[in-house]
Design goal:
- This protein is α/β, with parallel strands linked by helices.
- It has 3 domains: about 1-170, MoaB/Mog-like domain (Molybdenum Cofactor Biosythetic Enzyme, Chain A, 3-Layer(aba) Sandwich); about 175-250, Alpha-Beta Plaits; about 255-390, Maf protein (Alpha-Beta Complex).
- It has helices at about 10-15, 20-30, 45-60, 75-85, 95-105, 155-170, 190-195, 200, 230-245, 255-265, 280-285, 310-330, 375-390; strands spanning about 1-10, 35-40, 60-65, 90, 120, 125, 135-140, 145-150, 175-185, 205-215, 215-225, 250, 270-275, 295-300, 335-340, 350-355, 360-365.
- The protein has a 6-stranded mixed sheet with strand order 2-1-3-8-7-6, with helices on both faces. The chain has a 5-stranded mixed sheet with strand order 14-13-15-16-17, sandwiched between helices. A 4-stranded antiparallel sheet has the order 10-11-9-12.
- Belongs to the CinA family.
Length: about 400
């Protein structure tokens, strides 16, 4: 079964609140074999909400809405669903009584505006909310269903687990599972990795795709079926082939920083850092790893340049900086990143140098420092230089 998710709230479309509900819902639905095809964010506007729901209701067998079930004037989901499905709202006394009882249990007086929460579209199945004051409801037409849940994450999750999943299993007879496996890469490019596993990406089952973030890459493998053991076996077989072909680029699922620190820890080795950039990308990447791994990081010196230098001078400063921190912190390795002056095209050569006993390797990463991903690219390049040196 395929589904659409609609997250309702101006706070989402403004970006002041991140839509974590849809991500959780997509992962949860996958456990019963439901594949999310579309996620839509829509502001608190009755016309816009109605339009989005009406379109989804026409094309998808399962539509899930979150948010807009509160008691205030900008909570418009009930009215929008009623218009989109051509089902007038009707009052449910039992829902109202349940809301009133919940307020009494809080020791609070219910406002008159809470009365609107007891209205649901005609013919819809009311779903009392034991975790909050906003009831949910389900419109079930056999071949398609629309379910509306509160936007409060704890309430939404409770109702999904106690109402939605049983509905899909018991009334829709969903028995299949959708499993997803991720394999993480660095030291390659999306194009290069894609070429190596092109035939796997073109296969219809399991499905294989690649996404990129700051020069780190995730290969996602997904498979669906009614036999969980067989689906798991299919995923594992495909993953094994992907890992065989991309072996030299593999890194830990925890990320490149954890991968590097774990390799250092396993060898009783350590690293010290010299950063010539105020943002300290290498240090920030490493310190985000698990606490038990960060002990492999001996120290860091952050020394932004007083004035711009050319590429040759930047490389010399990086070599000197890497050796200095390695000696000062008595580390196995010293890693340094020093930027050259900004070129006419707005890009900067960042010289990255790794030194160790009888070891000196350098790499230049060309980045646009004003880019949001620039520091991530630099950190990835530096950490991958360490990774390749450790695994050489």
């Amino acid at each position: 079964m395929q589904a659409e998710l609609i997250a309702i709230g101006t706070e989402l479309t403004l970006g002041t609140t991140v839509d974590t509900n849809s991500a959780w819902l997509a992962r949860t639905l996958a456990t019963v074999g439901v594949e999310v095809q579309r996620v839509t964010l829509v502001a608190d506007d009755i016309g816009a909400i109605t339009e989005v729901i009406a379109a989804a209701w026409q094309r998808s067998p399962l539509v899930l809405c979150t948010g807009g079930l509160g008691p205030t004037a900008d909570d418009l989901t009930r009215e929008a669903v009623a218009q989109a499905t051509q089902r007038p709202l009707e009052f449910h006394q039992d829902l109202f009584d349940g809301i009133a009882a919940r307020f009494r249990s809080f020791g609070r007086t219910m406002s008159e505006s809470n009365r609107q929460q007891a209205f649901v579209p005609m013919g819809a199945r009311p779903v009392p909310n034991a975790r909050g004051t906003a009831p949910s409801f389900i419109i079930d037409e056999g071949s398609r269903a629309l379910m509306v849940f509160p936007g409060v994450p704890s309430e939404m999750k409770f109702l999904v687990e106690t109402e939605l999943l049983p509905f899909l299993r018991n009334e829709r007879g969903l028995k299949s599972v959708l499993l997803v496996r991720s394999i993480w890469l660095s030291g390659t490019s999306e194009a290069e990795a894609g070429e190596i596993i092109a035939d796997l990406m073109q296969a219809s089952y399991p499905t294989v795709g690649i996404s990129a973030k700051a020069a780190q890459y995730e290969v996602r493998i997904s498979a669906q079926g009614e036999d969980p053991a067989q689906v798991e076996a299919d995923i594992e077989a495909c993953a094994a082939e992907v890992e065989r072909r991309l072996e030299r680029f593999l890194m830990d699922r925890d990320g490149l920083a954890a991968h590097v620190l774990r390799r250092l820890t396993n060898r009783s080795a350590s690293v010290a850092i010299y950063e010539g950039l105020r943002g300290a990308p290498i240090f920030n990447a490493l310190r985000s790893a698990k606490p038990d791994l960060v002990q492999a990081l001996r120290g860091v010196t952050i020394h932004p340049l007083d004035q711009a230098v050319d590429r040759e001078a930047a490389e010399s400063l990086a070599i000197a900086g890497a050796n200095t921190v390695r000696n000062n912190w008595q580390a196995s390795y010293g890693i340094a990143a020093v930027p050259a002056q900004v070129g006419a095209d707005g890009f900067t050569d960042v010289c990255i140098v790794l030194v160790g006993k009888d070891l000196q390797r350098s790499f230049t990463r060309r980045v646009e420092l004003k880019s949001d991903d620039a520091l991530g690219f630099i950190a990835t390049a530096a950490l991958d230089l360490i990774r390749r040196s450790l695994e050489a």
